[in-house]
Specification:
This protein has 2 domains: 130 residues, no CATH class; 282 residues, no CATH class. Helix 2 packs across helix 4. Strands 1-2 form a two-stranded antiparallel sheet. Strand 1 and strand 2 form a beta hairpin. By secondary structure, the protein is an all-alpha fold.
Length: 419
């Protein structure tokens, strides 16, 4: 009995605290608007307590008290609509009542919701400035398109192989579309916050942990749309390869360190080459002092057609690689890894390292298969660079990618030399 009473007291205390938190913010709002008789700290504290008590008493109390609170909110709006026609305070009253009810079921959830509500109420000026002066209509439209693509279309697509040789998966291809749009949007936000010379390289590095190919494609689109961003976009595209190599090291060190040791020299040499190329491109971008002024014409976070074209290119590469695999026949895990690598270098690395850890293939076969996957993935990036980014983007990107391939296989050759 005492334990139950203690739980109820704690719930009431949390409800009171939530009401006080929201009420303090509304009290300040009330002080700033003399003509507005808004609900203050005492009213909202009592509303939250009412919700908690009603929840403890049962459905009838909830219905009666909730109806009364709703009536109070309507009357309050009717009396003050000439001074401030908004519904913010009235909605806050009803929501505070509901938070009080939630406090009986989950105190942590009620407290969290109360904090979020208070932050939203307190951020009125910031949100209004962002909506009216920072966010453009085109940015809002693109943001809604991205959300619809990720939250509406993606969940309903079938996750099953289709098409020639059953090598295509609509869900995975649409995931690439969403990734390209998201990385482009991230780069756009980074440019507006940190400037293009720093924002795009950082976006490329972060985006590479999700998909280096998608990042290179999105940077190519941005370079095509605004030539002033060419060097910064190329630096971001090249930096995405650093993330790919880092992910391979992380995968192998977790699953099988013997495979990591066999790959250490090829990956290290490639990492050095990519780091130098990224640094050189970033330095060139930083020296382009006119880039900030010229890049303001880029007014869209992304282009939907560009994302679709990238997914279409990946689909074509997958069909061609499956065709080659069917013609050449099943030559084992190594050839299969090379074929899968045209689309993704990480998946075959995981599977081959896991096979080596289980003793089903030797370390040398895993090493060769992972290098083939990384090489075929780099070939896909080369195609993307030229077909999406155009000749000028390719002029900056291709030397680094080709040198990365050369360093990769040079490291492999040296690692195979007998000591």
């Amino acid at each position: 009995m005492f334990e139950t009473l203690s739980e109820e007291v704690l719930s009431l205390a949390v409800a009171l605290g939530c009401g006080l938190l929201i009420g303090i913010e509304r009290e300040q709002h009330k002080a700033d608007h003399e003509g507005r008789q808004a609900a203050g700290v005492r009213t909202l504290a009592l509303v939250a307590l009412s919700g908690a008590v009603a929840s403890l008493l049962g459905p009838m109390a909830i219905a009666v008290t909730g109806g009364f609170i709703a009536l109070v909110a309507v009357v309050g709006y009717w009396r003050t609509r000439d001074h401030e026609p908004g519904l913010t305070t009235e909605v806050a009253i009803v929501l505070t009542f509901l938070i009080g009810m939630v406090a009986v079921q989950s105190r942590a959830l009620a407290a969290g919701v109360a904090v979020v509500v208070t932050i939203i109420l307190q951020s009125k000026g910031v949100l209004h400035r962002f909506s009216h002066k920072v966010l453009t209509e085109q940015e809002l439209n693109d943001g809604l398109l991205l959300l619809a693509s990720a939250l509406v279309i993606l969940p309903i697509l079938p996750d099953a192989p289709i098409g020639p040789f059953e090598g295509l998966n609509l869900k995975r291809l649409w995931t690439l579309v969403v990734l390209v749009m998201a990385i482009n949007a991230l780069g756009y936000v980074a440019m507006r916050m940190a400037g293009p010379r720093l924002g795009l390289p950082l976006t490329g590095l972060v985006g590479g942990f999700v998909s280096s190919s998608a990042t290179i494609a999105s940077m190519g689109h941005r370079a095509q749309a605004d030539p002033a961003l060419l060097r910064a976009a190329a630096a971001g595209g090249m930096a995405s390869n650093l993330a790919t190599l880092t992910m391979l090291v992380a995968i192998t060190i977790v699953i099988d360190r013997a495979v990591l040791l066999s790959l250490l020299l090829p990956l290290a040499l490639s990492f050095v080459v990519v780091a130098v190329a990224s640094g050189w491109l970033g330095w060139r971008a930083w020296r382009a002092t006119s880039i900030a002024a010229q890049s303001n014409g880029q007014s869209r976070p992304f282009h939907f057609g560009h994302a679709l074209s990238f997914a279409g290119l990946i689909a074509l590469v997958l069909v061609v690689s499956d065709l080659l695999a069917s013609v050449l026949g099943d030559m084992g895990a190594t050839i299969g890894a090379g074929a899968v690598g045209f689309a993704d270098a990480h998946a075959p690395a995981v599977s081959l390292t896991e096979l080596a850890a289980q003793g089903r293939i030797d370390v040398a076969s895993a090493q060769l298969g992972i290098l083939l996957a990384l090489s075929s993935n780099t070939l896909t990036k080369i195609v993307i660079v030229r077909s999406i980014g155009g000749p000028r983007y390719a002029r900056y990107m291709l030397p680094g990618l080709l040198l990365m391939l050369l360093a990769l296989w040079l490291g492999y050759a040296v690692s195979r030399w007998p000591l």
